Amino acid sequence: MIWAYRQGHKIVFDGNGWFWADTLRPVTGDRPCIRCGRMPTSEGYDACLGFIPGVESACCGHGVEEPYQMTKLEQAITAVQEDIDIHRRWADFAKSHPDDPSLEFAGNLEHHEAWIRRYQTVLEVLKEMVK
Description:
alpha+beta, three-stranded antiparallel sheet, 40% helix
């Protein structure tokens, strides 16, 4: 099963959609942040951070991770790394559950391994640009 976090709340993907892990209800809308207990602002910012000039992306960590802020290039590197991680999780799932029907939707092992190789090349180029 694939999992992630949203405002510090664990969510799971069952092949058909995302669900809150604690209630098993479909993920629709937002929930209060685990860390500060507040909803995101109407602009989508973490309520405890708000708008930060010059920053493309920021997160308070929601009690799950350390807070961070990123510029555009850093954000691109993080996004590519997250894509690699997602494809690795699906590849691991495909290896351990080769006959699972959700793989029809999600792609087989070879599909995910090919995307991992592509994204690793992109990641290398982006990291060179930061140097």
